Amino acid sequence: MREVSSQPIQTFSIGFAEQSYDELAYARVVADAFQTDHHELVVRPQVVDLLPELVRYFDEPFADSTAIPVYCVSKLAREHVKVALSGEGGDEVFAGYETYAAYKIASVYQRLPKLLATTVIPAIIERLPVSHNRVSFDYKAKRFVQGALLPPAEGHYWWKVIFTEEAKAALYAGGVNGFADPFRLYHHVYEQCPAADVLSKIQHIDTKIWLPDSILVKADRMSMANSLEARVPFLDHRVVEFGTALPSHFKLRGLTNKKYILKRTMLRHLPKRVLQGKKRGFNVPIPVWLGRDLRDFVHDVLNPQNIKETGLFNSKTVYELLRNHEEMHMDYSRNIWSLLIFTLWYDEYIRHPQAA
Predict the structure, then answer these.
(1) N or C: which end of the chain has fewer CB within 10 A?
(2) Is 4 domain-assigned?
(3) What is the pLDDT, as a whole number, of residue 131?
(4) Same domain, 117 and 201
(5) pLDDT at residue 277 above 70?
(6) Looking at the chain, which runs of residues are DSSP E strands?
C-alpha cells in the first residue's frame, strides 16, 4: 500500500491497559517504519456497556470476546475512512496459529515413556499457579497435556472446545442426552480433506469451520455495525489456492516456526522486532476483567434466580465456575463469557421477545 499510494496510509490499532495484552508498541513500530497516519484506542472494561448492543448486532449468542476490540477498532477507523484492509485468513492459509505448532510438539510428546506422559508431567503441570495474563503458560501447558495424547483431529478440537462433554453434563439442567457431540463435525471435515499430511488437514478444519463461522462473522458484523467496509486480501482466492498448494514445511518449519514463507517474504519490508515477535493473538483481558472490573456485572447477569428462570443451566455449577475463576483455581473466563453472552441474548430474544 505504501509503495503504490501517493498519500500517507491511515492505520488503526487497539490496545489495553493490561500490559500482557497490549500490542500498541508493535503497531507503532510498523506505523513508524511506513510513516503512516496512525490512530490508537485503549479499550477499557467500561466497554461492557456495549454488550447488549453487540448481542443485537450479532442476532445470535456469539461468545467471542474479541468482538469488542473489533467493534472498537472498526468504529475508530470509520471516523477517518470508509474502507479498510484487515488481516483475517492469514493464520488459516499460512499456518499461523499456536495450535498448529502444538500438534507437532504433541507428536514428540507421544514418544515419551507412558508413565512420564500420562502421570508425571500432567501432575507437575496441574500444580502450576493460575495466571490471568494473556494465554498464560499455565493455561497453555494444562490444555496441552490434557490433549497431547489424542489423535490429531480430536487434539485440535480440544484447543477450541470451551465446555467439555463432562462439563456440559454438569451445566445443563437436563443433562446432555439428545445433544450431538460437536466433535463429530470436526472429524467429518478432517476426513474430507484430500491432503495426506496432518497440518493440511487441521488447517482444512479451520478454513471450513473456524474461519467462516467465527472469524469472518465477527469481522463482518462488527465492521458493518459501524458502516465500515473491511476487505480481506489474504482470502483472495488466488492467495488461498497458492497457500493450500504449498508443502507444509513452507508454512510450519520445525516445531514452532509458523507462517514461515510469509515471514521470509516480508524480510525486506517489516522491522525485525515485528517479524521475530511471538504469535500473540487478538485476545482481550477478560480473565482479569471478570475477576475485578466486571465482577458485579457478571454476578448480576448470572445470578442464581436469573439462571433458574431460563430452565437451561444448573445455577450451582455456574456459581462454582465463578468462584473458582475469581479465587484463581482455574481460568474459566471463556466458560463464563459464553454463559454471560448467552444469558444476555436469552433475555433479549426469548425472555423479552416483544422488546427485542
Answers:
(1) N
(2) no
(3) 78
(4) yes
(5) yes
(6) 10-16, 37-43, 83-85, 229-231
Q: What's the CA dihedral at 12, 215, 50, 281 to 10 degrees? A: -60
The total domain count for the chain is: 3
* Coil/strand/helix, residue 15: strand
Structure confidence by residue, pLDDT tens digits, 213-271: 999 999 999 999 999 999 999 999 999 999 999 999 999 998 888 999 999 999 999 99
- Given a cut of 80, whether residue 134 has pLDDT beyond it is no
Identify whether residues 199 and 223 lie together within a single domain.
no
Is 60 exceeded by the pLDDT of residue 356?
Answer: no
What integer best gives the mean pLDDT of the chain? Answer: 91
Asked if residue 280 belongs to a domain, the reply is no
Q: Are residues 69 and 123 both part of a single domain?
A: no
Strand partners, 40: 13
Considering the domain architecture, whether residues 47 and 32 belong to the same structural domain is answered as: yes
Q: Is residue 23 located within the same domain as residue 164?
A: no
Instruction: Flag whether 82 is in a domain.
Output: yes
Q: Which three cell numbers stand for residue 128?
A: 502450576
In a domain, 303, yes or no: yes
Asked if 18 and 55 sit in the same domain, the reply is: yes
pLDDT at 133: 74
Shared domain for 103 and 193, answered yes or no, is yes
The Cα-based distances of 351 to 164, 201, 224, 344 in angstroms read 27, 41, 27, 10
Its domain, for residue 77, covers 10-93+215-250+257-275
What is the Cα–Cα distance from 124 to 38, expressed in whole angstroms?
45
Sign of torsion over alpha carbons 248, 253, 257, 259: negative
| 194 and 223 inside one domain | no
Contact (Cβ atoms closer than 8 angstroms) between residue 89 and residue 95: no
Task: Say how far apart CA 309 and CA 76 lie, in whole Å.
Answer: 38
pLDDT digits 0-9 by tens, 74-104: 999 999 999 999 999 999 999 999 999 999 9
